[in-house]
## 1
Amino acid sequence: MPIPFIIGGIALAAAGTGIKKGLDAKEKQDKAKKIVKRAKKRFNKTKELLEREQENLNERLTEYGKFKIDVFNVVIRDFLFLMKECANNTSSEAEIRKYLTKDEIVELEEITKETLEISSSIAQGIASGAVTAFGVYGTVGALASASTGTAIASLSGAAATNATLAWLGGGALSAGGLGMAGGTAVLGGLVAGPAIAIAGFMMDSKAEENLTEAREFESEVDIQVETMKKSISEFKIVQEAVDESQYVIEKFIERYQLVKENLLLEQEETYQSLINKYKKAKKNKTLFLKIFSKKPVKPPLCQLKNNFPMLLQIISSLKEILQSQIIEDDNINKKFIQIIEKAKIEIGD
């Protein structure tokens, strides 16, 4: 009878279909695994690069923060010391006010007190958070708190730098912020990826589902990789801005030192001129009494008209750069760029 043969043929066809589906399922399964493996490799490679660039930026911001602290502790402090000589000198008041207001001088004094305190903390191995933050901002007292609610100035180590970078992007992700261009999101850890079963016989429908999940995972990784690449580019832009800022500040410091040397020479020349007049007048008692009531002393630097205004201009420009915020709303601050461009014209660069 033909029926058994028909049944047997159907059974063989069904077995062949089953084998084909099994082979198709394995092929899809292997493809899904390769997609996930490739995506994870690309993700991890970019993540390592991002972490390296973030570490470089943290180190650079810390170096720049220390540099700015030294500028306040040495150059600005030196200038403030000179200004004490002019405290009761009304003749130089008008000239000083052309460049710096009373409030601005008081502000410089307060920041210098802060930087001296930070230097003391650095010597004790603390306040690294304050140093890093000072690299981005002009003052420590005006800083916001980290996403944990802890003042950035009191943090140290990796917690300080991560909190600072997260704050730059509007706060940590857990607090509703975005981190720096989303960089903190991907640094939190590698996404697990789809759970693809590999043991035993895989039905074709499940293999198709796994392949779809693998492709979705790859698409998600692509988005995160692009986000990381954007962060890497932004980190480099910030580093370039810091380098340019430090270069300009160093040029102003060179000018400050040169002008101060000229100022001291001018002071000495003015003093020697007064001494010579004093000696000549002393020979003529009548003339002596008219011109001198006592022996001349060195005039305060602020009374010297040739170089002191130049010194004031340098400090005014330095103050503007030192207190300028480099990053604002996750981008290079436009005002900072304008200040640097103006400063470069001043130094003839």
## 2
Amino acid sequence: MKVKKMNETAATGRINQIPAREAERFERALLLGALAIALLFDRLIADAQTFRAITCGYALFWLGYLIVYYICNWERAKRRMAAWYVAAVCALACAWLLMFAQGEMQLFTHLLLPVALMLHAQLGVLSDTEPMTLFANVFFGFFAQPFTALGKPFNALASLIAGKSRRASYAAIGILVAVPLAGIILALLFSADGAFSYFGARLFEGWDLGSALFHVVCVFVVLILFYSLLWNLKYKPENYYIPKPPAPAKLEPVAVGIVLGVLLAIYLLFSVVQAAFLFGGAQLPEGLTYSEYARDGFFQLIAASALNFIIFALALRFTRPSPAIRWLLLGLLAATGVLLISGVTRLLMYIGAYGLTWMRVAPMWFMAYLAIALVLGGVRLFAPKFRLFKACAAVLMAMALLLAFVNVDKTIARYNISMGELNNESRRYVYSLSNDCIDELIAYSDAHGGVERTALRERLFELRHSGAYTLSDILAWQKLEAWYGSQGRG
């Protein structure tokens, strides 16, 4: 598979179609937009002192970027419904970061939000949104587009400052490069030579040169990277594409049918065993408890389900259409459904014995997603024009948001506490959860006292020390202060 770069004429054709005066106005506006993004990054992320502050700044920064993106690409992006869908998902994810404090989901959101936003950036400007072309442009959006127009912001700044004066333009570019470069060289020389460092300390007494240099470099680097990215998205939105491959040779239904038939026979035997032991109440083999039976092999069932989807997609893509193959593939989806039911049943048994944790909620969520994908796969079997990949991607984003807004920490705490008095391990886990479940923790502490009250006091003192940034932390702080006062220790 080859990733091709469009020829220069095709890639830059849009620049020639835009009048010079209009292009100049756009690039000056883009300079201000990139500067706004850089200042947001410096103030909200680079200057933050705690992870909670970084998380809130991270959300506000990406919301600011989204606004600048649409200002720069409004004419093309306003008509792209897929881009609006991803933008809405990203905006809601940012809102979630400002509202909730769940550590596991925060890390997950921190990692995936830039990927989703790059996908959105490409969807908003590309005319070809076939999956492989889209993946290529997302990849190069991270590793090429921020670096292939690094000189453009200097040209825009020179134009903004000097108008048509060529000499003044060059002077502006020289100043822009010289200031951060001089700061870096001075910092290195101050560290290398004691006498020069003493001279610098006397000359810049009272100045925090290290901090100032850090912020200047931070703004400078973020500005030119985002300017280059947005410039490329405006003028070279289809710079990379995957040539459409020739139609693949189709396999004969007989060969594929034999493979699917063997798999279905195995799954039929598996289904009989599951019906007997999981659903029929048959006695397990000697020495095997239900909790062990529920735990052992669970992740293998998920892996087998995922493998079935791959087999389904390959058979659908590379097999000559045949009614028999269609019904065999439908049988494979049904067998995958049995695997998922078995997996869910095992997991519920294990949760019933040992309680909820994030590592048990996440597989349950994934199996729910696979169940929806099963239905979508069945639709694709009888509607050949149905875009299965895009539908699965859209459902995945929606379900990730659903998982975030369900408030998993609160659900975990409420369920585990409802099972009765917590043992030491369960207590430590529940009290390690975020402030999203503060109501449950306060109620449990009031009922049991002792160690639980000490844990809540420590949580309150931590909030007093580090501050509250998310809505969840602010509300938890208020409730803990009220609780602490009610204990007669305010």
## 3
Amino acid sequence: MNKQLFTLALFEIIISIVISVVIIYLSYSILHKLFFKKMDLKGSNTAFSVFTGGIVLSIGLILSEIVPSITNIVRLSTTQMETVDFSIIILYSGLYLLIGFLAAFIINAAVFLLFSLLTRGIDEFQAIKDNNIPVAIVVVATLLSITLIVKESIALLISSLIPYPEVANFL
């Protein structure tokens, strides 16, 4: 058994769970406080539940592209340096999470802008508050479609920021 790989795998599982729980909790809190102050998941508003589920799934898809990069930073720190520099790990992890948060924000804003342009006269926030399930489903489908299209680009952007060691060019 490779102890270093096993330890790294355990670390990745733990960091994935912690980051996911914290980011999803913060995202739900922001969504709830900014847009739906009187709504909650225990109420009878199915449209809000569908919408919230779509937001959480979108964030999860984006996070699934970020966590491996954080693990790569940890792996590089433990194998390429004599001592582990936790400030480097925290700096890069924070940068990657900030990029992910900004990407999620931009994707959500783009979805609402697109939805508003496509359906003039429908206020999607009010429709979701009024328990309009078809509107919530279309908004979530659009959100997830854009997230699925953009998530690979987010992963590429983040992986370009990983400080891999320089390799000599023999050609």
## 4
Amino acid sequence: MMENENYLQQSEGMHLGETSDISLSASADNDTHQAVVEMNNDPEVVVIAEGTTEIAPNEYKERVNLKEVRLPKSLEKIGKRAFYGCQNLTVVVFGGNEKVIEDEAFANCRALRKIELPDSLEEIGYGAIENFELGGTIALTNLKKLGARNFNISSSLKFEVGPNLEDIGMSSFNCVTKINVSSDNKKFKLRDGLLLDRLGTRLLFCERDMTDMVLVPATVTKIDDYAFYNCRKIKGVTIPDAVTEIPGYAFSGCEALTEVFLPGKLEKIARFAFYRCKALTEINIPGTVKKIESYAFGSCQGLKEVKVSDVCETRGAFESTVVVVPVPADQLTFSSHSSAATFMSSGSAAVRSSSTPFRTESAAAYKASVSSYSSALGSNNNLANQKRDEINDRRMEQKRQEQMRVKEERQNAQEELNARMREEFMEKKDALMQKVAFIKDELRRTSGVNVLKKNKLNNQLYECTIQAIDLNGKYGTYIDESEKIEIDD
């Protein structure tokens, strides 16, 4: 900040037309956007003047020579695309009191990787900080709104959902590894590694170190884009029937995924949904699915064949996978073009990319194919239900064992406490009884004429009685009735 003040001091008393290494510029149409201090002899550095509370939208957009920005303590808001496309910007020093960073404020700043976000932030807009490498833990306790497409570069970031966070945009945690939710947050909760809204209907995020089978709660009706992105260790997932769409990139990069149980009412699988799921060798597509978008199963080398209904559009969805359509060949018409091969059945407009191999069956095999397909879908639903029951049973057993473990630990801890407190009581009891014995012995030795001494000893004996009552009360729950201290007159 001294640097800031020095720049301002150097600029004081100068007249228009004078030559200087410092220039002040201001936006005439925006009272809140005050003087901007720039070094004319070093266009790579911008220092915003103290007193400025807002940087206007697009203010420094695509200033490719800009490398360093220093913001004042007075700044509260950075406008939309304020530093968009500053591709050589490497350093941003926040003032520490910023409250709002609007949409794409630092988007496409390719050289800007590491920053320290101020805890004062209350709102981060769409894609405002999507390309930053942020390590460690982000805990913005005042944050109320986090826009979509942020934290897309970090590889080992932990994020704390603070007590005030109310709004989280889709694909905000693409590269967050772990997440924690404040117990005071009223909008979100964490359940078995899954970030959900409080009602449990929206699934936003799955922790990236999850393993084995993931059971999406039956309450979920919507899964966010990128929810399971790069969960490289999960081996299976079951999705409840209320979900009608698998969103874009939802399971992209889940390299160990081998089992997927899709809901029976699914209608759409969006682009890149299962892209690079290399271990996936089979998947049953429900007959309710009407559209599978481009590269939904791209780079799934292990997926050799998949069945879809005759009304399902799969343009560019598969690469090396054979698509089996349960429609007899005599009901198909073909038309060849340079870029695509089109085939359709009665009332159907299913289009396949020319790069997607497809196979149809003879009229004689049609009934068997449809029966097999229906059976496969039924089997898929049964397997999903079975798997869901197995996981629920396993979780209930784990919960029961955990409760037993906690109960045993508490019991052991209580027994240790009882033993320790009893030992402490017995030590204090022994010391007190030795003192009582000494007082009584002194009373026996004291002659009747020494009244003052006898009174003093009796007072001490009375104090010991009061002390015994206090010890019995304090340690009463840790000792037997027969062990309590009794002082005879």
